[in-house]
Each structure stands twice: as structure tokens, then as C-alpha cells.
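Q: What would this chain look like folded?
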Amino acid sequence: MTDAELLEQFEQLTLPFEHWTHQAHVRVAFIYLQRFDFEQALDRLRAGIKAFNAHNNVPESATSGYNETTTHAFAHLIAATMHAYGEQVPVADSLAFCEAHPQLMTRHVLRLFYSPQCRMNPMAKATFIPPDLAPLPRRK
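A: My prediction, written as C-alpha cells:
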């Protein structure tokens, strides 16, 4: 699926739920970060994930549903990676970005920055909580 197709299906809420994988999350964040500054990209990603989850009846619980800390931290890591490697390793599209940066292809990468207690804090779902193990890398 091309970047344009993925983004259109995500925004129109027609992307099949089984295609909303971790890689799809990274791809959509990458596309938004290419087009907008960090805050605008994060706003679009946040709104899109919430709408997609609601459309697909994803339950909100301690371990399910939208998580602001996870979304913000991953967007931050993607932006930092784009900044650090963008000129040295240019990529054609979001799939090439994912292939070039396998470290982002596991949602467990946040374990380098967050303890389980911090990420499972109920406040982490609603508001961004800074990491407690190591700082996130600089975005710019």
C-alpha cells in the first residue's frame, strides 16, 4: 500500500482494522512528520488514532485504547530518527523508512526510556509523561 493510500484509508476510517499494525502507526506518523511540524503532526496523529479506535470500537482500558505517552514518545523517536538520518539515508517513502530503521519496528523500544510503572501509570493514557529511565533523543 502506498503512503497516499494508507493515509487516505486511515483518515477516512476505511483502513481494515487488521492492517492497523505497529508498522502502520509508524508509517502514518512518518508521513505526518514529513508534512507538518512536530506539534501539528502529533495533533493529527492523536486525533486520527482516537477516531480510528472509536470507529473500530477499541475498548479503553489500562492496556487497550489510546495512550498519549506512547503516541507522543513514538512520534518523538520517529522525528529524532528522521532528523538524525534523513540527509544521510534518504528514503523514498514510509515503507523504506521502516526498513531503514528496524529499531522502530518494535513497540518494545520504549522500554529503553520508560519503566513499566511509568508507562502503566493511568495518567500516561491521557497526558504525556516524560521518560523516567533515559531522556528521549533530541528531535532537532
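The helical segments are 3-11, 22-35, 38-55, 68-85, 94-100, 116-119, 122-126.
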